[in-house]
């Protein structure tokens, strides 16, 4: 409109609170992601193991059902820390595959289309951008990892009684803390690779390579150097060690829990450093 007419007015609508502005990114991302039938089918597949685990808990507390089928229960049907370690390991694998599917499309479109200045020219910081993109993936991972895990703990606690629940609250904390930490690491790795590798297929392959190549190099270092420190670059083994500490289960790894957490923290710091090089309002072209 022409400025001289002075018919323009100040915006008088409701302002978005500053603390929640980063949620605008997940809202539009989900609208795009949930249009994929493949993603919806994969999320449904991720629910199969938790449903089976819930059925296992029910059967473990209804031995009359097994007796009717002439199945000896023995020590097989026990819901303990080992049960939840297996749950975490399996769902962590599904979360990893979900990251390879969703992660490549989080940052690369903004970098490729030079949209980063449009975000950061508004009252929107780089931290809020990274947090918003992380929320997209962490929210999806939560629904296939620690949320079902806590539901399973609740089912077990309801059937085993308050005494069992009170004595095993550390299991609930271990499932939540372990799976939440895993989701943070996966999200940071996905964002860093998505920011640097603009081709989605290549970015998905790079996410897979971070874990598989790291495990392979770690095994080679251990065999050649006759040491166990090569496992420090195997993020899956480090996370398994961390779960072993949280859930009080001997995972059989020679790496200590402190070393495992330090390795995961260093990997996260590297990802944040890589993101800081790409998530900026300008790009210097030499």
Low-confidence stretches: none
Mean pLDDT across all amino acids: 85
The SSE string, one letter per element, is HHHHHHHHHHHHHH
Query: What is the overall silhouette?
Result: globular
Radius of gyration: 23 Å
Q: For the report, how would you describe the main beta sheet?
A: none
Structural class: mainly alpha
Q: Treating each run of at least 4 consecutive H or I residues as one helix, how many helices?
A: 14
Taken as a percent bin, the fraction of beta residues is under 5%
Number of domains: 1
Report, as a whole number of angstroms, the end-to-end distance. Answer: 40 Å
Number of strands: 0
Helix content: 55-70%
Topology:
Elements: H1 24-33, H2 37-46, H3 48-60, H4 63-68, H5 81-102, H6 108-112, H7 116-120, H8 126-142, H9 146-160, H10 162-167, H11 169-196, H12 200-225, H13 235-246, H14 257-278
Helix pairs in contact: 1-8, 2-5, 3-9, 5-11, 5-12, 8-11, 9-11, 11-12, 11-13, 11-14, 13-14
Write up this protein:
With 286 residues, the protein is mainly alpha-helical. The protein has one domain (29-62, 76-278). The protein is 69% helix and 0% strand. The protein has helices at residues 24-33, 37-46, 48-60, 63-68, 81-102, 108-112, 116-120, 126-142, 146-160, 162-167, 169-196, 200-225, 235-246, 257-278. Helix 5 (81-102) crosses helix 12 and helix 11 (169-196) runs antiparallel to helix 13. The chain starts with 23 loop residues before the first helix and ends in an 8-residue tail after the last helix. 33% of the residues are buried. The model has no long low-confidence stretch (mean pLDDT 85).
């Amino acid at each position: 409109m022409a400025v001289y007419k002075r018919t323009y007015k100040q915006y008088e609508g409701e302002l978005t609170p500053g603390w929640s502005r980063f949620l605008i990114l997940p809202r539009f991302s989900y609208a795009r992601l949930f249009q994929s039938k493949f993603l919806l089918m994969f999320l449904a597949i991720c629910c199969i193991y938790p449903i089976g685990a819930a059925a296992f808990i029910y059967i473990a507390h209804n031995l009359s059902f097994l007796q009717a089928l002439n199945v000896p229960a023995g020590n097989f049907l026990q819901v303990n820390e080992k049960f939840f370690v297996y749950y975490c390991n399996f769902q962590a694998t599904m979360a990893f595959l979900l990251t390879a599917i969703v992660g490549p499309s989080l940052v690369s479109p903004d970098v490729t289309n030079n949209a980063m200045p449009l975000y950061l020219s508004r009252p929107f910081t780089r931290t809020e951008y990274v947090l918003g993109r992380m929320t997209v993936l962490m929210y999806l991972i939560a629904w296939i990892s620690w949320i079902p895990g806590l539901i399973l703990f609740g089912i077990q606690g309801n059937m085993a009684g308050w005494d069992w629940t009170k004595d095993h609250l550390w299991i609930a904390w271990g499932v939540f803390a372990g799976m939440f930490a895993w989701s943070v690491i996966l999200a940071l790795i996905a964002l860093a690779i998505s920011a640097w590798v603009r081709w989605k297929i290549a970015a998905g392959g790079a996410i897979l390579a971070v874990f598989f190549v790291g495990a392979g190099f770690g095994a080679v270092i251990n065999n050649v150097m006759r040491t166990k420190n090569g496992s420090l670059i195997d993020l899956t083994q480090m996370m398994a060690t961390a779960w072993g500490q949280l859930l009080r289960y001997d995972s059989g790894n020679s790496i200590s829990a402190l070393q495992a957490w330090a390795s995961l923290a260093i990997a996260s710091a590297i990802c944040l450093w890589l993101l800081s090089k790409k998530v900026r309002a300008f790009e210097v072209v030499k």
